[in-house]
Each structure stands twice: as C-alpha cells, then as structure tokens.
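Students often ask why we bother encoding 3D structure as a string. The short answer is that it lets us treat folding as translation between two languages. Here is a chain of 229 residues written in the first language.
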Amino acid sequence: MSLLDRLLHLSPLDAFAVFLLLAGWQAFGFWIEREGARKPSVTVLMMAERRAWMVQMVTRQPRIFDATILSTLRQATSFFASTVVLAIGGVLALIGNAEQIGGVAEELGAHATPVIYQVKLGFVALLLTESFLKFVWSNRLFGYCAVVMAAVPNDPDDPEALPRAARAAELNIRAAWNFNRGLRAIYVALAALAWLIGPLPLILASVVVFWVIWAREYRSQTHAILSQR
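And here it is in the second language, the structure alphabet:
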C-alpha cells in the first residue's frame, strides 16, 4: 500500500488537526523570533544579552570563562540531539508493532487500522527528525561562534575587536535560534502523539502545547527578569 493510499484512510478532521498543529508551530516560531515587537519574547530578549556578552568578552582576560560557557551550550545541543535519536529509534520500533499500539489506543477509545497508526507514528518520527537536524545545526553554529570568538583580538583598542565580537554574537544568536527551534519541534512531536487517540485529542494537545510555549516566552518569571531595566 502506497503512502497516498494510507493517507486516504484519514478523515477531513484528521487533516484539519494536522494543519492546525503545523500552522500553529510555524506561526508561533515566526512570532517569537520577531525583533522590534512592543513586547519581545524571551528569545528576543536573550539576543540582546548575547550581544552584550560578546562586548564584555573583548575586555575580559583571560577568556576561559567565555570558552566554558560556550562549551556548556554545545554540550546541551549534543545531549538533546542524542536524546532525540533515541526517541526516533523508539518511534520506528513502534511503527513495526502498530497492532500493539492499536490495542492500547482502542482501550482509550480510538479505533483505526494498523496502517493509520503507522502513518501517525511516521508523522511523529518526521517531527523528531526535524528537531534532530536543528540541534545538529545549532551545535555546528556554536562551533563557528567559538572560532570567531578566538579570532577576536586581545587588544580592545584594535579596530577589528568589536566587529569580530559582533559577528560572534550573531552566530551565537543563530545557534540559539536553532536550539530553540529544536525544542519547539519536540513539543510539537509530543502533541502529535495525541493523534494516536484521534483528531480531537490532537487539537486539544496542540492548544495546550502552544499555550505552554507562549507562556514561557511571554508570561514566565524568566521574561519578567529579563525585561527589567
């Protein structure tokens, strides 16, 4: 059975639920990363802190402290990338045992063929794969940032010091963006697991996940601290 034939087994409500999840995911990502908003997100507020970090690095001697922080950030990306790989392996294993998953889902009120559960689990695997790719690229960007930081002259009066530090800051910001995108992809993948029960649980899980993402970016204690002037 082809992928198209499998997708034809899904209802219009399933299609709407998946569209809501994907559209909300992209819309929230765009909204969170907007610069110049009247109320910036935690992600945008941290951009200013990262730029300030690179300015302070220019005059800090020695720069072991900065290297340690960057190493910690790279370790975080490696940890999440490794964790996501394990999760992908687990989901792929479940796809091979779709009948057992169907039995569990039926106990929760869902009724579908094993083929449908394979499609739904495949969707979760794709989301986790997107998360993995973001974490890997984030790790790579932090590596680029480390190289540019090492190229910043030790003399603060050197005309190349601040421009190189600014480039390091922008690389650091892009690395953080990809790290955050990887985390959001995990949130979305967790919401997608609710699709195993049905489209309505998927819609409900999507709303809950989007609320959690929004609250952490705009209503959290972290946001209040970073907004202080």
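Translate back mentally: Residues 9-227 form one domain. Keep this in mind for the problem set.
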